[in-house]
Amino acid sequence: MKKVSYILAFISLCIFIIIFTSFEKPMFVKMDQSVTDFFYGNKFISAFHYIGNTKVIVTTSLILLIVLWLRQRNFRGMLFVLLSIAGGRVLNQIIKNVVDRPRPEMVDQLTSFSFPSGHAMLSLLLLFTIAYLLSEVVVSKKNMVFVWVVAILLTILIGLSRIADNHHYPTDVFAGWTIAYFWFIICVFWYEQRKTKFNKMKK
User: Fold this and answer.
1) How many CA atoms does the CB half-sphere of 182 hold within 13 Å?
2) Which residues of 175-186 are buried (b: 16+ CB within 10 A; e: fewer)?
3) Closest CA relative to residue 37, chosen from 175, 173, 170
4) Which residue among 77, 144, 176, 187 is the one 20 to 30 A from 106 at the CA level?
5) How far is CA 181 from CA 12, 44, 162, 172, 187, in A?
6) Do 164 and 39 form a contact (C-beta atoms < 8 A)?
7) Which segments of the chain have a pLDDT < 70?
8) 140 — phi, psi (to 5°)?
9) Is the pTM of this model over 0.85?
10) Alpha-carbon distances of 56 from 59, 108, 113, 127, 186, rounded to whole Å
11) What is the rounded distance in angstroms from the CA atom of residue 36 to the CA atom of residue 16?
């Protein structure tokens, strides 16, 4: 992982802390309202929420684990997936319960807490984990760039879908993205350290 990724992870953590401590301040409340007004009701963006729901995340994660086990015997990769996605899910629930933020008011609203967005957080972790693991086997730099562009675009659209549906405030989504990226880089650091240690043992 390049140094710029660690710098971005630090910046992401700082942004998350700012949102975490300030989302109730007038500036952020006004921003939430403005962004929600812009995206609310967008049917195209709203459709992407299906990709980020729990069943899709769990099913895709299980398929990824099976592929890593049967085709590659990549047990470190399997642990990486569990640490990134399952660990991210636990982190999301801990933060939700600490912050205890109600969701936006609307008819038939979800009853779980709002901050940070689970869709935004877990979709980033899943898609970035898949893209990272694919980057280990994809030879073409052009194809690798394509994989990452698709992962980033889907992550953005899934997060924005929660705003379009008014199930989350924009600050919930931004916080989900930033803490997810920070957690993802921690998981990558662990994975690469284990991989380096294993390669040294083989020599």
Assistant:
1) 16
2) bbbbbbbbbbbb
3) 170
4) 176
5) 7, 25, 18, 14, 10
6) yes
7) 107-110, 196-203
8) -70, 125
9) yes
10) 5, 22, 20, 12, 24
11) 19
Distance of CA 184 to the CA centre of its chain: 8
How many whole angstroms separate alpha carbon 197 and alpha carbon 163?
43
Angle 118-135/141-164 helices, nearest 10 degrees?
170
Q: Is the dihedral of CA 16, 188, 196, 80 positive or negative?
A: positive
CA–CA distance, 67 with 137 (Å, rounded to integer): 13
pLDDT tens-digit series, residues 104-147: 887 666 677 889 998 999 999 999 999 999 888 877 888 899 99
The residue written with tokens 């898609």 in the block is 127
Average pLDDT, the chain: 89
Q: CA separation (Å) from 182 to 59, 128, 154?
A: 24, 12, 18
Residue 65 token pair: 């684990």
* Residue reference for tokens 């405030």: 169
